[in-house]
Amino acid sequence: MNEERVLEIIREKTGLSEEQIDKVNEVIEEHFVIGKNNKDKIIDGIKEKLGFDDAKADEIYNAVMEVLGNGIFDKVKEFFRKGEAA
Question: Which of 1, 49, 60, 69 is the most exposed place for a label (fewest CB within 10 A)?
Fold first, then answer.
């Protein structure tokens, strides 16, 4: 799944505008997505760039992580399917 598709799915899940999604993407690109401290940094960045409260920023963060996690899971499944064909 490419970056444009990931952002499109996040937009669908969150109902954010394209401009807001671009800002969320900026925050994500500034921080490594794994790790407790980085979660806090991403949520703080979303609140700062978009002016959302804690609950909305956390909701967006969770939607982003769900989409990224599903993308990673799909890649792993694809990898093992290719291995079975060999």
Answer: 69
Q: Which two tokens stand for residue 35?
A: 């790790």
* pLDDT per residue as tens digits for the range 41-57: 999 999 999 999 999 99
Q: Other CB atoms closer than 10 Å to residue 67's CB: what's the count?
A: 20
Extract the tokens encoding 9. 């799915």
Q: Looking at this protein, which amino acid is placed at residue 34?
A: I
Strand, coil or helix: what is 32?
coil
Q: Is the four-CA dihedral 24, 56, 14, 20 of positive or negative sign? A: negative
CA distance 45 to 70: 23
Q: What is the pLDDT of residues 26-45, one digit of tens each?
A: 998 888 766 667 899 999 99
